[in-house]
Amino acid sequence: MAAVLERHEPLLLRIAGKYSLCADDAQDAYQRTLEIYLRRVQSLDPATEVGWLKVVAKHEAFAHWHAPQGDRR
What we know:
This protein is mostly helical and 73 residues long. The chain has three helices and no strands.
């Protein structure tokens, strides 16, 4: 689990940055992705784990676009 996160951290940060409005939002999206991953890691298929992480990072970055300024995660 830790190896997957270490190996793909740069990719996930790039994805979060690409779809976020600012660096702080990208970092928040990345952190939220890690939280979700840690909750669901036992149920993930290792063959699709990286793709799943990429989709979650993108969705979390987009979630910041739609959250009111004071209501961001």
